[in-house]
Amino acid sequence: MRHHLLPPKAENALVEFLVETARCGFPETEERVREIAAIIHQNLTNDEKAHVGQKWVNRFLERNSDKLKKSWATSQSMLRGTAANKESIDHFFELLSNTIMEFSIVPELLLAMDESNTFIDKSTRRFKVIGIAKKRAQALLKDENRESVTLIPLISAVGHCYPPTIIFKGKQIRGKDNLPNPLGAK
Length: 186
Prior knowledge:
It is a single chain. The chain is α+β, with helices and mostly antiparallel strands. Helix content is 34%, strand content 25%. The chain has helices at residues 8-23, 30-45, 56-63, 78-83, 86-102, and strands at residues 28-29, 68-77, 111-113, 116-119, 127-132, 138-142, 148-156, 161-168. The strands form two sheets. A four-stranded mixed β-sheet has the order 1-5-2-6. Strands 3, 4, 7 and 8 form a four-stranded antiparallel β-sheet that branches. A hairpin with a 4-residue loop joins strand 7 (148-156) and strand 8. The mean pLDDT is 78.
């Protein structure tokens, strides 16, 4: 039988920690998992120089493939990630329904608006993270510190489309003449 770096209890605790952090939107990278395992190993052996080999994470994931896997993370800003929860979504639709009934709003006057945020810079950095085995995609919550624009398309409930609105931060737009504007938005 092969000797494992971490005893079963320590390895199980690490698995549960990684599942929980991924569930909360903060999955760890392979490098970070290796660092955490090294710290655990160093504490268990009292050997400050002990390290974790390059292939350890892959073997660890194989042993725990029923709970963990590597996947590409899609980043979501902290603000958006924490706002998307069942309670706030249910509350929104309850308010919408009550408002439509209270003011007798007809479908012609109902408009759907969906703001979409996009970054101006070309940073498309993706992260390979350790996430939950049974999840197809893994969200990575993080603070965004990049320049962005917000695009707001507007469509009525009966199908009328209106020119989109684009919101830029500040009064001066860097390089605005070079930005594409295929819909003629203002």
